[in-house]
Amino acid sequence: MEQQFQFASFSPSDDVTSPFTTAVFGDNSYWNHAAFNVGFWSIVVVVGLAVPVAAFVASFHNIPYQQDDGSWIWSYDVPVAGVKHTAELHGIYIDNGVRWEMYVTKAGDYTDFLWYYGESDRPGTEGFWILKESPTKNHDLLQIDWHRNIADGTGYIKYTNIVPGGPENGGYIQVETTTQTPYDSFWDIYNKGQDNHTYIDWRSKSQEGRVKDQKRFAADNWHCWDGDHRNIVCP
């Protein structure tokens, strides 16, 4: 989860594991269901965004050059899965923020593909991205909306499927970290095709949590687990 917040908010990325690790055996079905959903969608997002995320993160290790029109360009090579890609990140100030465009080239395959673009405010506290699916499928794939509070480390990020005419258009994953109690982290996974929400509330320090999923449990109520990930009656 955290690595995606960092991508969205224009900060260098570190390897941070998900709060949900692997599923465990025993009376842990509520935890397992939550862990499976978070793990599955985390893999989908991370694998699907491997090239654009790697290209963006690499920009922080390179020097930008100002252009005659006042914009800035970072140009550099970045390896992804052992294959060299050339990236050009363009940034230009607009009213109340910055406009970003990322062009990626893979020798012998594609040149200056506009993989994504977006805007952020100048303090780097909120913005959005629009991502294309791939150079061979040059249509919109995701809109990523994000916000963060730098002072208290909270924020949210929302990935929305915007594939034109796609059956999952309008589906989304939203992740939020807060200072609320008793739960401080929240997931809302909306499967558009099934018209179903999976809600997950999580207490990050003690690992207690709860999940609500009408399709999975055939009931619109919470299912809870304790700090050992075992099923309990919700308090």
Q: Would you kindly provide a written description of the structure presented here, covering whatever features stand out?
A:
With 235 residues, the protein is of the alpha+beta class. 17% of the residues lie in helices and 45% in strands. It contains four helices and 14 strands. It has a 14-stranded antiparallel beta sheet. Strand 1 (65-66) and strand 2 form a beta hairpin. The longest helix is centred in the first third of the chain and has 20 residues, at 29-48. It is elongated, with a radius of gyration of 19 Å. Mean pLDDT is 84; it is low at 1-25.
Q: TL;DR?
A:
This protein has four helices and 14 strands. It is an alpha+beta fold and 235 residues long. Strand 3 and strand 4 (97-106) form a beta hairpin.
Mean of pLDDT: 84
The end-to-end span amounts to 27 Å
Structural class: alpha+beta
Low confidence ranges: 1-25
Kindly report the spatial arrangement of strands forming the biggest sheet.
Answer: 1-2-3-4-5-6-7-8-9-10-11-12-13-14
Rg from C-alpha positions? Answer: 19 Å
Strand content: 35-45%
Q: What is the string of helix and strand elements? A: HHHEEEEEEEEEEEEHEE
Largest sheet: 14 strands, antiparallel
Structure summary, number of beta strands: 14
With helices defined by DSSP (H or I, 4 residues minimum), what is the helix count? 4
- Helical content (DSSP H or I, runs of 4+): 10-25%
Helix and strand topology:
Elements: H1 2-8, H2 29-48, H3 50-58, E1 65-66, E2 72-80, E3 83-94, E4 97-106, E5 110-121, E6 126-134, E7 137-149, E8 154-161, E9 172-177, E10 185-191, E11 196-202, E12 209-213, H4 214-217, E13 223-225, E14 231-232
Antiparallel strand pairs: 1-2, 2-3, 3-4, 4-5, 5-6, 6-7, 7-8, 8-9, 9-10, 10-11, 11-12, 12-13, 13-14
